[in-house]
Specification:
By secondary structure, the protein is an alpha/beta fold. The chain has 8 helices and 7 strands, in the order H-H-E-H-E-H-E-E-H-E-H-H-H-E-E. It has one domain (3-158, 202-235): Rossmann fold. A 7-stranded mixed β-sheet has the order 3-2-1-4-5-7-6, with helices on both faces. 41% of the residues are buried. The structure holds S-adenosylmethionine.
Length: 236
């Protein structure tokens, strides 16, 4: 993929364009499995009292809402994203759920987070990091704002390794997915970026090394659904 495809301004515009149909498309294109993947990622967050979590690239706030569902009432979440279109929908979902006192939704770029060092118990990002040109910088920032001993949790698609599943999977994401994506979103192009960004993202072992290079320790990963997605967890 041409590096300019991940130009932050282009990425921001693309997500704002597809925002109105984003949740529906997620459910349809993943056959609903995306919810299980987010749930699994959220389970990797530490169980601490008065937890403060940062959901980076929160988009329409599905991860932030999942955290609130799974954690005790003293838990709070800050959700950040740099797409106004996605944030608007996220804020609306939080407002409808009556959770504004527990989920604070704000504008921020993952590569320069507007928070002091060591303030969150963990940071989490779901399906966001592959869109970040300098993803190591993003992971470093997610680590910087987390307390010592806290965690960084990353859910992302991976370049699938399983030889039996690889061919049908490639066919699905390069042919079927852009076709359905265009029909439902009514936008040409956005769903062409998705397959290439998914296929070109590093395999889990390589990505683990990149995370370690940012200074996080005890990095481990879990492959999900034949290795379509993976959750990496590192400790500060
Ligand atoms: C595929 S969506 C994922 C949204 C949400 N986390 C979820 O699980 O559905 C990717 C999100 O990453 C955001 N994003 C991409 N690059 C970003 C950056 N550098 N800083 C902040 N948000 C970013 C996009 O605006 C978009 O909302």
């Amino acid at each position: 993929m041409d590096k300019s495809a991940k130009d932050p301004a282009k990425i921001r515009t693309m997500f704002s364009t597809i925002a109105p149909r984003y949740d529906l498309l997620n459910r349809v294109l993943s056959l609903g499995i995306d919810r299980c993947w987010r749930r699994f990622a959220v389970r990797q967050l530490p169980k601490v009292e008065n937890a403060r979590f940062l959901d980076v690239a929160t988009g329409t706030c599905d991860v932030a809402l999942e955290i609130i569902k799974r954690f005790p009432p003293d838990t709070k979440v800050v959700g950040v994203d740099f797409s106004e279109g996605m944030l608007e929908l996220g804020k609306e979902k939080v407002r409808k759920a009556g959770l504004q006192h527990r989920i604070d939704v704000r504008f921020a770029d993952v590569t320069s987070l507007p928070f002091e060092d060591n303030i969150f118990d963990a940071s989490i990002i779901a399906f966001g990091i592959r869109n970040v040109q300098d993803y190591k910088k993003g992971i470093s920032e997610m680590g910087r704002v987390v307390k010592s001993g806290g965690r960084v949790v990353i859910l992302e698609f991976t370049s699938i390794q399983n030889p039996f599943f690889r061919v049908p999977y490639r066919f699905y994401i390069t042919k079927v997915l852009p076709f359905i994506g265009e029909i439902i979103s009514g936008k040409k192009g956005a769903y062409k970026y998705l397959p290439s960004s998914m296929l070109e993202f590093p395999a889990p072992e390589e990505f683990k090394k990149a995370i370690e290079e940012t200074g996080l320790k005890d990095v481990r990963y879990y492959k999900l659904t034949f290795g379509i997605a993976a959750v990496h967890v590192g400790t500060k």
